[in-house]
Amino acid sequence: MNLRGGRALVCGVLLLWPSLEPALAQGEHQPRWLIEAPTAGVLPNRAGALDVRFYGGDGLLADVSTSLWHRVLVGVSWGGQGLLGRGDADWNPNPGIGLRLRVLDETIGRPAFAVGFRSQGFGAFDKTLDRYDTKSLGFYAVFSKNYRNPLGQGGLHFGLNRSLEDGDGDSDLTIFAGVDAELARRLWIAAEYLFAWNDDGNGSLGTGRGYLNAAFRWTLGRRFALELDLKNVLEDAGAPNPDREVRVIYVTGL
């Protein structure tokens, strides 16, 4: 899929928005993240979640988060490459921190709205440019609206962000959009497009195509899920093939 195809997919999804039947996102129908893009979802009060991502053959990133007062989501993450196998581990330089405030709850006619901050990027950390392969979100704002589909529920999500990883000289404000849907009671799919306007400068890793990511998740009960992510479908940043990653999710307190 080329750049034009990726943007056409996002535009097509957004054009379908008015034709879907509205629904209120409740409990487990509130994903906190798509693949890398945030949603306006939070965990139930005092619930916690552990997300573990396996990437790049030997990379691992663990994220622990909890929700307070049904509106505030806080988290910390840490990981690195070379953590599996016999070689020396290459840890990320700093733990990642995250904070999200759900400003407005969703109604039938209005999307939920949240603002937040996340310092954790994805992929390898480039010490020369002082950034991850995919830059951290930094400060962000996001709208999420839940809709019913013939097989369950799903949502549409749109937001903007300003990353603090600007060592490559590209500090533009950028936007993202995504969609998720249940295929059946225990199956969930998602797709997102990160426009990455902050990753197309002369000194950047990106080439201007943006990042198209997709996910397929299998849920076992209410607490455990196994997910396969296909990232960088447009092969931005000179990648010869999309990245295949595995994500394990465990939620407690539900």
List the helices and strands and how they pair.
Elements: H1 3-16, E1 21-22, E2 48-55, E3 59-68, E4 72-81, E5 90-91, E6 96-104, E7 112-118, E8 122-126, E9 131-134, E10 138-149, E11 152-162, E12 174-184, E13 187-194, E14 211-220, E15 224-231, E16 243-252
Give a structural overview:
With 254 residues, the chain is mainly beta. Helices cover 6% and strands 50% of the residues. The chain has one helix spanning 3-16, and strands at residues 21-22, 48-55, 59-68, 72-81, 90-91, 96-104, 112-118, 122-126, 131-134, 138-149, 152-162, 174-184, 187-194, 211-220, 224-231, 243-252. The strands form two sheets. It has a twelve-stranded antiparallel barrel. It is globular and about 45 Å long. The relative contact order is 0.18.
Which features would summarize this protein structure in a list?
single chain, 254 residues, mainly beta, twelve-stranded antiparallel β-barrel, 1 helix, 6% helix
C-alpha Rg, in Å?
17 Å
Order of the strands making up the biggest sheet:
2-3-4-6-7-10-11-12-13-14-15-16
- Fraction of residues in helix: under 10%
Shape: globular
Distance between the termini: 39 Å
Order of helices and strands: HEEEEEEEEEEEEEEEE
Report the strand count: 16
Mean pLDDT: 87
Beta-strand portion reads over 45%
Q: What is the SS-derived class?
A: mainly beta
Q: Note the quaternary state here.
A: single chain
Q: Which regions have little confidence, pLDDT < 50, spanning 5+ residues?
A: 14-19
Main beta sheet: strand number and arrangement? 12 strands, antiparallel, barrel
Helix tally? Answer: 1
